[in-house]
Automatic annotation (TrEMBL):
Entry keyword annotation includes Cell cycle: yes
Localization annotation: Cytoplasm, Cytoskeleton
Naturally occurring in which organism (per UniProt): Heterosigma akashiwo
Residue ranges occupied by any Calponin-homology (CH) domain in the UniProt entry: 12-114
Name this protein carries in UniProt: Calponin-homology (CH) domain-containing protein
């Protein structure tokens, strides 16, 4: 399910296209790829494709500290395992909020999303509001969290 190699067309998608895609399909207002470092967006992307496989009530949209980001990535990894997605997530790289690492992860996610499609009538805001800080999350600037 994760046979999206580094030479796949996914990795030739630019920052602007990724941000436009995320903002449109996830109803966010992200301006930087690095803002995905919390892992919350990744959890919701997986939930949009595989509803019910991610416990959205446990996703922390207010995450500001590394340990909170790690908790979100643990939720994501359990979701991958449950679904059978063989994808290594280098959490230590992603939580540093470095552009290239997070760009490549979101490129992979965009391709996965395109290949597997979101379920129709997915309630982005309804699902997000189940998590800590999710009801008010649209990303209003600053570090890695929401607000």
């Amino acid at each position: 399910m994760s046979n999206i190699g580094m030479m796949d067309q996914a990795y030739f998608v630019g920052r602007r296209e990724i941000l436009e895609w995320l903002n449109e399909c996830m109803n966010t207002n992200l301006s930087k790829i690095e803002q995905t470092a919390t892992g919350a967006i990744a959890c919701q992307l997986l939930d949009a494709v595989h509803p019910g496989q991610i416990p959205m009530s446990k996703v922390n949209w207010d995450a500001k500290q590394d340990y909170e980001f790690i908790d979100n990535y643990k939720i994501l990894q359990r979701g991958f395992d449950k679904i059978g997605i063989d994808k290594h997530v280098d959490v230590q790289k992603l939580i540093r909020a470095r552009y290239q690492d997070n760009l490549e992860f979101m490129q992979w996610f965009k391709r996965y999303f395109e290949l597997n499609g979101p379920v129709s009538a997915y309630d982005v805001m309804g699902q997000r509001s189940k998590g800590k800080g999710g009801a008010r999350y649209r990303y209003s600037g600053g570090g890695g969290g929401g607000g």
